[in-house]
Amino acid sequence: MKNLILRTLTGIGFVAVVVVALLLNKYCFGVLMIGLMTVMMIEFYRMTMQGEYLFSQVLSILAAIVLFVLTYLYRGFDFPGRLVVLAIIPVFVVMINSLYVKDKTDFGKFANLYTALLYIAVPVTMTNFAVFGPQGTYGGILLLSLFIIIWVSDIGGYLFGMTIGQKFGKKLFPEVSPKKSWAGFWGGLFLAVAAGAVLSRTGMLRYPLEHCIILAVLMNISGVYGDLIESQWKRYYAIKDTGTIMPGHGGILDRMDSALLALPTGIIYLLVVNVL
User: What residues are paired with 1 via a beta bridge?
Assistant: First the structure.
């Protein structure tokens, strides 16, 4: 019970920060996303590289920030889109730097530098497509709505999983996450669809109801996979949490794991059906 209370209070604080930042202006959005991305990459590198090749880790994080900032400028400040390709230069710097590392005993860990760029930096960067309109106008409602679907899905999965899934029914992926159950999956899916419908009816999601329901289903499924993927990383490295910044949850990566797949999935769907 004490852990549930702590988890709830910490979660409310995190949600409040995200909501305020998204609704204030594009500068707060930029600071929020760069901050989340940086902390998640630090947590990922701490888990996978254990303090080795720190300079290369810093270079990789800077490469991620450059990618986000260039895309941010392109979407929100009329920055030439063709210049976004400049973001590849810092990645080349990371690659070239690997040649000058003297101790190559654990050189295989360098692969994790590029994994974090794909796993964390690219999904976070894609949020720029959810907040900026064709003319660079900013609006955080759509991204907030996507977050709401993810949060509601997570809550549904947690509640149904803890109350029903631990006693009845089959486990979802016992070899990766023993606590995940099919009851939690269906509970999360149900609440995600309900959230999508409510967001459509209230006008926060300004799309036809069928699009909102499909969006919620796709984001729920991809979010579950995102959660399982991070669980697999943690199981491989034999750790419970990637950090301690969020008591009751662990690290930012623990809190955002489902969003790293769910947000890009939602944005891609809206782009493909040409409503974004």
Answer: none
- Residues linked to residue 173 through DSSP beta bridges, in sequence order: 177
CA angle 178, 118, 234 (to 5 degrees): 25
- Taking alpha carbons only, the member of 183, 104, 196 closest to residue 146 is 196
Q: What tens digit of pLDDT does each residue of 202-225 get?
A: 999 999 999 999 999 999 999 999
Amino acid found at 56: S
Distance between CA atoms of residues 138 and 80, nearest Å: 18
Half-sphere exposure of 75 (CA within 13 A, CB side): 21
Question: How many Cβ atoms are within 10 Å of 167's Cβ, its own excluded?
Answer: 9
What pTM was estimated for this model as a whole? 0.93
Give yes or no for a contact between 181 and 161, defined as CB atoms under 8 angstroms apart: yes
B/e letters for 99-124, b = 16+ CB within 10 Å, e = fewer, are eeeeeeeeeebbebbeebbebbbbbb
CB 145 within 8 A of CB 204: yes
Give the contacts of 163 (CB within 8 A, at least 6 positions apart). none
CB atoms within 10 A of CB 265: 21
Dihedral sign from CA coordinates of 207, 23, 147, 39: positive
Res 8 pLDDT > 90: no
